[in-house]
């Protein structure tokens, strides 16, 4: 074990957690803009809810005030002249206030719930749609984990705020203001005594806010580490057990758990101090009001009823503040969630939809492929230039293989062709139309990229194949599967094509998942098919089957194949050898093999390894 | 025997109700007995102080004001301040202690849960979605923590408060007190009913949010596929529909909540209204003083919280009980792959912590590692056909056997049997003459090193990932392993070997990941190396270099390597063809090519020879 207990985690470029004042203001501004945009369509509902809460608070304040009046003005007639009328009048007013309060509370809670959840729904839709629009480069640098937590925990935090926090916060603030005013109006001297309590309260609340902001962050970070460690351990349980990692893992997990335990203890101790301190202030003021108010009553400055009203008000005055401390975390996580969400919404897709979309001409009946051209294309990731200047013309129907070492730019070409990225300069065209001018739906119908990443979605095998063409019939799905040799293993599954694929296709082997990805592509029948290492997980007979399907069914389509295995390359009409983004050899497999270039050398060393 | 930590889970006969589940976890509260006692005492003290304050109000109004005696005001108001301070202080003490106690109780359960899960065999983990396990370790544990820290105490104190306050009210005025008590009592079941309906809706929201999260997760991780096939609009439509379901339940929840809050506002106010009218009558009959009336109202208001909270507390108790049940589902799952002497002992208290290896296993490198598959069969649970029927394979020490076979023929399954990530259904695997089920797990796994096709990397430094199976390895050993696996690129990462990789760190390519995983397997210096298609993501050049390095390393160890490519087959002393659940053929590459058509098709060389 290293001296530093956390050395195992290693170093990574963290997103700055502590933000400068300027940036914080910017973030707040950005999230406010998002919030205002979302609330704008509900302007009237917002005004209505605010009016409701004012009415509700006023009605709530009427109660103690009426109690005071009842004692001072309702009781004496009853005692002295057995006249119950004033008291009953007051009781009626009281009942009215109670009814108003109940009705407005009901309406307020329901309405804020409705509006709040509308906003949340809208936010969910916007965010999900926006994430789909954002380019692959964004997703890769932002990581799927963050994309997921923006859409789950962050949005849930906002939802929680609307659900439980917002009304109690507004109610607390209004009560504070109204009760304060009411007490000053009833008796300014006694009112001032109560208001003096504001000084320690403000101080306490400022302290609590400051402390809990940092403690909240600490808790979130600590639990995030616990979760990551937990999920990774059991995601990789085979490696964990095979390498007898259990004990060290337990030690690490316990350490992370201790950090979280400490952080959450600290956080709840802040509330443990804040809450009782608020009630301490309240109780002390109650004692003082009791003494000083009693003095005023004896001196005849105020009546007993006023004192009773004050005592009842005091109870209402401090209780909502207790809620605020509970509510503060909800508020904080919603605010930081909104900040992060607005950050994602602010991202412009680097691969936008065309402003003036064009449609490619009808495909020929004879050749269903399309001509692809790279015209002076340059591309790179950040500072790293991958394609210095690429010119490439692939005639319709040609099968082109790309060969070269890792980093030569093969995958980049595939991704440019699938418009996962746009070139820095130059253009990629499909039948002479720039890919940037094709609407996404059209582009996807024309060009399909299959990678080694054979992701399966929740649902049945058939559902997953049908992803290639959602309106395909069961027969067409099966035909596609048969073509690439997947039918046999699918038919052998417990429910055949209707077998659920399980979590991420975990029940199927890597090769089988790969075949399903292929079936998708065959069903989609695009004009241009791009295979990026797509056959590397298949055994050779399966690969041959896929290739023969390529040669027969998609013979007239344009295809770009990237492969490590030279056997895969053999079926190509044409081979390109790439080195650092430049084409160093170009010809038919036979021509290249006969030459003395890189390809010939590769091929002979490979052939030697077989013999 | 090394010291073991027993779980604090009490074992229960067969089926128990959810409350029983909670009771079974009581052992985790045991260490906090003293804290619990102090917390209860403080809670009772605080309640008593809070109840006493209105009595001082009565004394002020009736005594001091009634008699115009100003001298009484000072001690009375000081007493009120004192009681108020005591209440606040006692609450502070209770909550302070509670914060520490429940957090560390939660941690202990989580640690035990984690350790137990690590002992459960991979097939258990295949059956459980990781989200399900995680929610038990987080959400469910919080529910238990909340109940232990909050619900449990208030369940007792609130009932006590209710009884004490009603008794005091009756003492102030018996019939008024009785009426107030009777009016309040039915509120409890009403609150419980509300809470129940609310929980149902909350649960529904949770489920719907879970479904929504699955869609979100798929769209995020499968973004390239969605984009490549242009299926964004469909995904958005599904998401929209699911999000609308969540919205509808949330609105329903809000409207229920609205009625509930309204009711909760109504109750105390109705009580005040009632007491004013009835109290005035009592005052006019001289059975209650004015101070008594004020005290009565403030005291009656103190009933509101215990009564309305009771619904919440009971609901939180039910929630904690359900959570306990869900957690016990895991604790009650017995590890199926254990050391021989541990086996199945459902009656016994579960023993944690794997046994450390007792002695260094190897003294003479290369002399050990005789691996034999003796008529091994294996079928996955629920599968109609066994994957492996009758595998017979002998790997003498130091030999490299390449295992090949069609996709889905069970190659990976066979490899999993060696480090006992799964146990054979029948037959046995023997290492140096001993059935591997008789070798302590820790020793067996120290003797077997693995690299799997999906290179599992963890969010930790490169060094941590490479020294995964050999935490004590020194710099030189790490360097040698990285060099052999052609993974020296790790030194060029921004922070060298300290660079964090994995999901939370630097993104590596598939080939880079495989090479790191390979370095990990090499570094463990095992007697037996199990490599499952370890070079599939490498380009031809790198593959060639790795193969060359591997050949040297494999010379010292027994190795079982799954391979698809003829180039990797070159590593083999012997090639074995797995087909139809048996080793259909074995021998050297050339002989098999000539004699076995299935093997020849798999390696597909005719084609190549023609073109070459």
Descriptive account of the structure:
By secondary structure, chain A is an alpha/beta fold. Chain A is built from 20 helices and ten strands. Chain A has helices at residues 21-39, 43-81, 85-133, 136-142, 144-186, 188-196, 198-235, 237-242, 246-298, 304-346, 410-417, 440-446, 461-466, 474-483, 487-491, 510-524, 540-552, 566-569, 589-594, 598-610; strands at residues 372-381, 384-394, 399-403, 425-430, 433-434, 447-450, 528-532, 558-562, 574-579, 582-587. In chain A, helix 17 (540-552) links the parallel strand 7 and strand 8 (558-562). In chain A, helix 2 (43-81) runs antiparallel to helix 3 (85-133). The longest helix of chain A has 53 residues, at 246-298. The radius of gyration of chain A is 35 Å and the shape is elongated. The two termini of chain A are 48 Å apart. The mean pLDDT of chain A is 84. Chain B is an alpha/beta fold. Helix content of chain B is 60%, strand content 9%. Chain B has 21 helices and ten strands. Chain B has helices at 18-24, 33-67, 73-119, 122-127, 130-172, 174-184, 187-221, 223-229, 232-284, 290-301, 304-331, 411-417, 441-447, 462-466, 475-484, 510-523, 540-554, 566-569, 589-595, 597-603, 605-611; strands at residues 371-378, 388-395, 400-404, 426-431, 434-435, 448-451, 528-532, 558-562, 574-579, 582-587. In chain B, helix 17 links the parallel strand 7 and strand 8 (558-562). In chain B, helix 6 packs antiparallel against helix 9 (232-284), helix 7 (187-221) runs antiparallel to helix 9 (232-284) and helix 9 (232-284) packs antiparallel against helix 10 (290-301). Chain B is elongated and about 115 Å long. The two termini of chain B are 63 Å apart. The interface between A and B is large, with 185 and 187 residues.
